[in-house]
């Protein structure tokens, strides 16, 4: 069987430890699929990557055939089947948002150009590093011969957070909650929407509002909890989400490779072209999607009330502003 070649731009070792183990033991690309892992990081981090390589080797995982640490994009992206771009420039104290965008445009313009030059045209690219939606758009624009549909950004962590909050409120396992939606940006403007969510209670699927029986919570504290969850994790552990982020990355990529169950959809930041929800074109915006044969399709025809429309438009406006700022740096 041919190996699947996967590159992970490491950056955050805490995420990498959980993520790489999950990939290497077959949780993402299949329990019988041999893989090669390529780990990309900046030059000063190569000695740390050597330690990560040793640990992966020491796991003695049968599917992991080779691990290649590198600081060179031409090595990292050659003939790739999947790229998971975790690394980005974090916001530092005193840094303006436009300065953060400018720094990340440089990173993702370079990585997009390298994907264009070296990766397979069928490569699936997941952008995790923040601001993830706009970083993903820049990478896609920098790789014009790779279909835009092959690029996505991570909003699955937000999706999982929303699903878990509803499950805890209803006293059921998270697996009994389906079809929550994250609309828009992976930021505090995102809109966690449960108007189409179903909760299985005592063997019957109930609408989320009927299961929770607390409209004020669902329209208030639930939304703000999901929107601010990342900040709450940082406040509590003085570090950003790692284990949950790695799990969400694995969920996202596994669904691309294996598809979503019939009647269920998940949230992904994808290209907004020709969507039916009135979202501006040329954005990476989180929508509900079905996935089959490694192709996503936005779920059409969901009813949108005025409450939802206002929140969907607000997060879209933020993305338009981010895009317009980033694009000025792209041509610089």
Automatic annotation (TrEMBL):
UniProtKB keywords: NAD, Oxidoreductase, Tricarboxylic acid cycle
One GO-annotated biological process of the protein: malate metabolic process
Protein name: Malate dehydrogenase
EC code: 1.1.1.37
Domain spans labelled Lactate/malate dehydrogenase N-terminal: 14-151
GO molecular function: L-malate dehydrogenase (NAD+) activity
Catalytic reaction list: (S)-malate + NAD(+) = oxaloacetate + NADH + H(+); (S)-2-hydroxyglutarate + NAD(+) = 2-oxoglutarate + NADH + H(+)
Protein family according to the UniProt entry: Belongs to the LDH/MDH superfamily. MDH type 2 family.
InterPro entries with a match to the protein in the record: L-lactate/malate_DH, Lactate/malate_DH_C, Lactate/malate_DH_N, Lactate_DH/Glyco_Ohase_4_C, Malate_DH_AS, Malate_DH_NAD-dep_euk, Malate_DH_type2, NAD(P)-bd_dom_sf
Source organism of the structure: Oncorhynchus kisutch
Gene: LOC109885003
Residues engaged in binding NAD(+): 41, 104, 128-130
Classification via NCBIfam families: MalateDH-SF1 (TIGR01759), MDH_euk_cyt (TIGR01758), PRK05442.1 (NF003916)
Enzyme kind, highest EC tier: oxidoreductase
Biological function: Catalyzes the reduction of aromatic alpha-keto acids in the presence of NADH. Plays essential roles in the malate-aspartate shuttle and the tricarboxylic acid cycle, important in mitochondrial NADH supply for oxidative phosphorylation. Catalyzes the reduction of 2-oxoglutarate to 2-hydroxyglutarate, leading to elevated reactive oxygen species (ROS).
Catalytic residues, chain numbering: 186
Residue intervals of the Lactate/malate dehydrogenase C-terminal domain: 155-329
